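in:
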C-alpha cells in the first residue's frame, strides 16, 4: 500500500533493463509513492531491455546516456532537470558490467583492457555521474543518492572476479562524494549492499546459484528480494533518512553479520 512518501519529489533512475531489475522495481514503487522521474540507460542496454514499457507505465521520460561518457551525463542532467522542472531530489545508480566475468576470465588471468571497462562502467560511472550532477547544479538541497553494491567489496567471493574491485571503488566514491555534497547542499550519498538477487546481471555470474543458496542458508531472514530492496531505496530517498549519509548499508537478511548457521554446519558434520 502506497503512503506517498515521495510525493512531489523528482528523480533520475538509471539501470532499469527489464522487470527483473532492481532499478525497475524502484521505478514502479517510486511512481506509486508519488514521485516523477526520468529513466536512463546506455543505448546498448536499452536495445536489449524493455525500458520504454516501464516509461509508459510510470509516465516517465527516457533519456539515453552512456554512464562512461561525460558529455552524455551532462546532457542527461540538463535534459532531466528541464523536463522535471528543477533539480532532482533522488538519484539511483544501478549500473554494473564486467567483460572478464561475462567471458569467464578468472581473477588471476584478467584481460586488463576489460578490467578497465569493469572499473569504468561499474564504479567510475558513479563518480562521473555525481561530478556531472554537481557541476550542472542538478541535485536539490537535501537530495538523496543511492548506488547498489555487493558484499564482495568487503569479502572474497572468487567467482565475482574483478567486479569485487569495482564495488570496493564504488563504495569509496560514495563516501568521497557524500562528504563533499553533504557539506555543499546537505545531499546524502549511500551505497546499499544487497543480497544475491535473481536479476539478469546477477544470474550471469558463474556459480550464482551457489551464491544465492549459500546466502539463503546463512541469512536468518533469508535473501532480500528485489522488491524489498526497492522499498529500502525509497526509504533512503525519503525525508525519513535525512541524516543517513556516507554509509554502506547491508540489505541482506543478516548475512553480513552471521558467522555460521546450523544449516551450514550440518553439511560438514552429517554422519559423524
Amino acid at each position: 500500500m502506497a503512503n506517498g512518501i515521495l510525493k512531489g519529489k523528482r528523480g533520475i533512475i538509471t539501470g532499469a533493463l527489464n522487470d527483473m531489475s532492481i532499478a525497475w522495481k524502484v521505478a514502479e514503487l517510486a511512481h506509486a509513492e508519488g514521485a516523477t522521474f526520468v529513466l536512463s540507460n546506455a543505448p546498448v542496454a536499452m536495445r536489449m531491455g524493455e525500458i520504454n514499457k516501464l516509461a509508459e507505465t510510470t509516465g516517465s521520460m527516457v533519456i539515453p546516456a552512456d554512464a562512461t561518457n561525460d558529455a552524455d551525463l551532462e546532457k542527461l542532467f540538463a535534459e532531466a532537470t528541464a523536463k522535471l522542472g528543477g533539480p532532482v531530489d533522488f538519484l539511483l545508480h544501478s549500473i554494473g558490467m564486467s567483460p572478464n566475468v561475462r567471458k569467464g576470465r578468472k581473477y588471476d588471468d584478467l584481460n586488463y583492457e576489460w578490467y578497465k571497462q569493469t572499473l569504468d562502467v561499474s564504479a567510475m560511472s558513479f563518480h562521473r555521474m555525481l561530478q556531472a550532477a554537481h557541476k550542472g547544479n542538478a541535485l536539490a538541497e537535501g537530495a538523496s543518492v543511492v548506488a547498489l553494491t555487493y558484499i564482495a567489496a568487503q569479502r572474497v567471493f572468487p567467482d565475482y572476479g574483478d567486479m569485487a574491485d569495482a564495488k570496493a571503488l564504488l563504495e569509496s566514491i560514495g563516501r568521497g562524494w557524500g562528504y563533499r555534497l553533504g557539506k555543499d547542499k546537505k545531499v546524502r550519498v549511500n551505497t546499499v549492499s544487497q543480497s544475491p538477487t535473481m536479476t539478469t546481471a546477477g544470474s550471469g555470474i558463474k556459480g550464482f546459484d551457489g551464491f544465492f543458496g549459500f546466502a539463503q542458508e546463512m541469512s536468518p531472514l533469508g535473501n532480500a528480494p528485489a522488491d524489498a530492496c526497492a522499498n529500502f531505496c525509497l526509504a533512503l530517498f525519503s525525508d525519513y533518512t535525512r541524516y543517513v549519509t556516507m554509509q554502506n548499508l547491508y540489505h541482506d537478511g543478516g548475512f553480513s553479520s552471521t558467522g555460521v548457521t546450523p544449516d551450514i554446519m550440518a553439511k560438514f558434520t552429517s554422519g559423524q
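note: The mean pLDDT is 93.
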